[in-house]
Design brief:
This protein is of the alpha/beta class and 371 residues long. It has ten helices and 13 strands. 33% of the residues lie in helices and 16% in strands. The strands form three sheets. The chain has a seven-stranded mixed β-sheet, sandwiched between helices. Helix 2 crosses helix 7 and helix 8 runs parallel beside helix 10. Bound molecules: pyridoxal-5'-phosphate.
Length: 371
């Protein structure tokens, strides 16, 4: 390696600044994991199935199973039919859930709306599943009549359907009960519903009137959630849940475990990170969600009050608005889609932070600001 002008001290300084001016991505940056630091002295690896101990002893599968159990309870998945694992991110959860659908229905066709996360199309490509992209409504929710027509057009093939609980761009929530009603009306019985709840999966259980991801009420097959979004984590991670009786596995003698997960080696640190967050904050999740919703409404109202375009979907903390000038986009690390941008209001976006953003975004000559 050549001599480097980089240093970890300078990196820390940059990260501190970049944390203060972050608004675009749905990451809870308010994290405190001091307790986890001593674990960095160990090579943790949860390789193989979380429910099969395996030969490698430096694992945290007992913590992993408790995190899975927390989510199983949240989504009313019966204990004796619970399976899941801590993934490397929400994308891996989507890959897993959609692959599970294909394992159950090798001739299945994958359906998802235009507003699906790009990992859904990626899963179709990786696993060679025919993919039918269904139209969305303007606010990002799937267009039910288009879904219905697409299913009629392919009536003889099983359906693997990706349902969004919080789309990436506008935070729109697809109506699970409507999707299931369409399947019933068309008498389609061979289907697998995968729910992508990357962010929304941690919002809807705590919002009154929202449709929860409910395994006991709806015939859902799998759910993926990102761990580093609402819960927050210093490294990306995620959770995927499935019904145990549908999960196929193959024994691997070398591991002393079974090969049920997408990757081989798996992060042993993230289960403890999520476990610790759940231990400390599970009784505050509802309050955190309520505060994010209130602050999102505040941001939305402030923008609308200036006669500018804004969008805030029900059961969502994502405020969409017109793309501001490039300096503001850079300074606040906004994710943009053509002419629109959004702020996903998270726990660290307090009123003062949002006010500062609004003030800066309105400055006629923002070039006085530092990126
Ligand atoms: C963020 C997101 C994902 C992907 O999650 P990662 O953890 O970034 O891989 C999937 N679906 C939706 C709707 C998302 O917003």
């Amino acid at each position: 390696m050549p001599d480097s002008c980089l240093s970890i001290d300078a990196l820390l300084e940059r990260l501190e600044h970049r944390t203060k001016f972050h608004a675009g991505y749905p990451y809870n940056l308010q994290i405190d994991y001091q307790k986890i630091l001593p674990l960095l002295e160990y090579m943790l690896n949860n390789l193989g199935d979380p429910y099969v101990e395996g030969n490698y002893g430096l694992n945290t599968k007992d913590f992993e199973r408790e995190v899975i159990q927390f989510f199983a309870n949240l989504y009313h998945l019966p204990i004796d039919d619970t399976w899941g694992y801590i993934t490397s991110c929400g994308t891996e959860g989507n890959l897993y859930g959609i692959l599970l659908g294909r394992e159950l229905y090798p001739n299945g066709i994958l359906y998802g709306s235009q507003d699906c996360h790009y990992s859904v199309a990626k899963a179709a490509k990786m696993f060679r599943i025919p993919f039918v992209e269904v139209q969305s409504q303007n606010h990002g929710e799937i267009e039910y009549s288009s879904l219905r027509q697409a299913l009629i057009n392919n009536r003889n093939s099983p359906a693997i359907i990706n349902v969004n609980v919080g789309t990436t761009v506008t935070g729109a929530v697809d109506d699970l009960s409507k999707v299931i009603q369409i399947l019933e009306e068309l008498k389609i019985t061979d289907f697998h519903i995968h729910v992508d709840g990357a962010l929304g999966g941690m919002l809807v259980p705590f919002i009154e009137g929202a449709i929860n991801i409910d395994f006991s009420k709806y015939p859902i097959g799998s759910v993926a959630v990102s761990g580093h979004k609402f819960i927050g984590s210093p490294v990306p991670c995620g959770i995927v849940l499935a019904r145990k009786h549908q999960v196929k596995s193959s024994d691997v003698e070398y591991l002393g475990s079974t090969d049920t997960t997408i990757t081989g080696s798996r992060n042993g640190l993230t289960p403890v990170i999520l476990w610790d967050a759940i231990q400390r904050r599970q009784h505050m999740f509802a309050l955190e969600v309520a505060q994010c919703l209130q602050n999102a409404e505040y941001l939305y109202n402030q923008i609308v009050a200036t006669d500018q375009f804004a969008l805030l979907n029900p059961f969502s903390t994502t405020v969409v608005f017109q793309r501001p000038v490039e300096l503001i986009v850079k300074r606040w690390q906004l994710a943009c889609y053509g002419k629109i941008a959004h702020i996903v209001v998270m726990q660290n976006h307090t009123r003062p932070v949002l006010s500062q953003f609004l003030q800066e975004a309105e400055i006629k000559n923002p070039y006085c600001l530092v990126v």
